[in-house]
Amino acid sequence: MMKPLVLVRALPLPLLLCACSSVAVRVPAVKPAEINLAAYQSVGIGAVTGSGNFAVADALEDALTSSQRFQVVDRVHMGQLLKELQLTPADLQTPKGTAKLAKLVADGALIFGETTERFSEVPNRQDWKDEQKNTHVLNTLKGEVYVRATFKVVDIASGRLIVAKTYEERRQDLSQNIDKRPDPVDRHALEVAARQAIVMRFMRAIVPHTEYQEAGFRKDSDLPQFEGGIGHAQRGEWKEAEAAFSAALQDAEQNKKLKSSTLAKCYWNLGLTYEYAGDYDKASELLGKAYKLSNDEAMLPEIDNVKRLQSDSRRLPGQLSANAGSGK
């Protein structure tokens, strides 16, 4: 079974706004790839051209291997195959060339790349005086790396272009010194960071990945059961969390003195539990009741998120193949 990539989604603004009365629980959610490459068990890297091409190709090969989604034909082996078939890297961009390679690489795809990298370093100086009126100079170097990469995925058997994606990333840093020339900006570190960001964006497009989301469970002093339920949710114990929030809801429904806003929190917390346990229909029902009782617009993004997660769950089975990366 493949291991999805792991990414992080920022805390939504509505949850930030109500953070004082809620507890943000970090929850993993597997997201489908934008382009389904489940049919391709073998992937090789064709020609990658342009400045920084070797570094980008290395990073891409590492990411493909780490994903455990494909059998990755390393570039050394690819070179041997091309020599055996009397092909050049340029031949692989023609249907005739890929057809010859398909005889040795079944159910495969090739990734071609074109990269551009630029680095700029801009000096600046600023005069200032200390308490003794002595003049000093703050010398600054601002370094910026720009990386652009286009990746094209080609079906080896047919030579058909499956997808083409272009990404851009910039990374900046400052180096400063007083009355002295500042050290050079670490260009290499900036380049590595920008390349990695581009490769991860591409991998996110072709491989299912895990995003960590923030579920905002509501608190209420009138319902101490919430504390136990939230604790279970923080540990990913969804059945136990469901039991705790269900008990809180039963108590709240029998207590006629409780405000509707408090009852809404019960529906909300129970709905979140069902949502992240994967029961999206039940989650939509409960979160909808919470919104109707409270008319709290901060709930609307999460209600929409249930629909997205449900849609994602329908797309995932065809991408999370048990044979992924096995060559079977």
What does this molecule look like?
41% of the residues lie in helices and 30% in strands. The protein is an alpha/beta fold and 328 residues long. The strands form two sheets. It has a five-stranded mixed β-sheet with strand order 4-3-5-6-7. A three-stranded mixed β-sheet has the order 1-8-2, with helices on both faces. Strand 6 (135-155) and strand 7 (161-178) form a beta hairpin. Helix 7 (238-254) packs antiparallel against helix 8 (260-277) and helix 9 (280-294) runs antiparallel to helix 10 (300-315). It starts with a strand and ends in a 13-residue tail after the last helix. Residues 6-20 and 322-328 have low confidence and may be disordered.
How many H/I helical runs?
Answer: 10
Helix coverage percent: 40-55%
Strand content: 25-35%
Task: Kindly provide the radius of gyration, computed on alpha-carbon positions and rounded to a whole number of angstroms.
Answer: 27 Å
Give me the secondary-structure topology.
Layout lengths: L4 E4 L4 H5 L4 E10 L10 E9 L2 H15 L3 E3 L1 H11 L9 H8 L5 E22 L5 E21 L5 E18 L8 H20 L2 E10 L6 H10 L3 H17 L5 H18 L2 H15 L5 H16 L13
Parallel strand pairs: 1-8, 3-4, 3-5
Antiparallel strand pairs: 2-8, 5-6, 6-7
Helix pairs in contact: 2-5, 6-7, 7-8, 8-9, 9-10
